[in-house]
Amino acid sequence: MTNTTLESTDRAPNDSNPFKQTAAIIKPQTKFLLDDGEKCSKNYKYDGSTGNLSYHLVKHRIIPPLESGIISPMHTQSASNKNGQKEKELSTLRWILLTTQPLSTITQKAYIEHMYIIDPQFTVPGEKKLRMMIARSYGYNKEKLKLLLKTAQSISLTTDLWSSRYIDNFGTSRPN
């Protein structure tokens, strides 16, 4: 097992923008040793998304660091669980859409650690992949809805209209 350090600078000392942040870099204190004895010498640029690092840690079965110590793998599963990965990605998308969570939820450190504890082999999809899945789902469900509407005898719509404090108008309709 190896420990990692997170070198971070909140902002450059001579930077006039107090809100600008520079990227943090995760560097191993000692080289990661993989199962086959090979040394892993990668440095990771942290730009807010940990997908690259998470993928690498899972791929090489390196134990990811936690603030309180190290996560130990609960049990190992077969690495060739491609169907399980896709099902879990779809389940994640369904959870995000049905609970109206922001897509950025999946990039949060706590969510990634939670998913690692549940299944160390699961690679959390990035926002870009979820957006593609939503686009594909929209196309599929749009066609499905068109077929459903063709066979419907009657449709009842509820319309909500409102405006914001800044006089922006909004409206929505949904079938009942």
Number of strands: 9
Uncertain stretches of 5 or more adjacent residues: 1-13, 18-33, 63-80
Strands of the widest sheet, in order across it, are 1-2-5
* Radius of gyration (Å): 22 Å
User: Main β-sheet: number of strands, strand sense, barrel status?
Assistant: 3 strands, antiparallel
Backbone structural class: alpha+beta
Global shape: extended
Order of helices and strands: EEEEEHEEHHHEE
The first-to-last residue Cα distance is 56 Å
Percentage of residues assigned to helices: 25-40%
Describe the structure.
This protein has 176 residues and is α+β, with helices and mostly antiparallel strands. It has one domain. It has helices spanning 51-59, 82-98, 109-118, 127-151; strands spanning 4-7, 24-28, 32-33, 39-40, 44-46, 65-66, 69-70, 157-163, 169-175. Residues 1-13, 18-33 and 63-80 have low confidence and may be disordered.
How is the topology of this model organized?
Layout: E1 4-7, E2 24-28, E3 32-33, E4 39-40, E5 44-46, H1 51-59, E6 65-66, E7 69-70, H2 82-98, H3 109-118, H4 127-151, E8 157-163, E9 169-175
Antiparallel strand pairs: 1-2, 2-5, 3-4, 6-7, 8-9
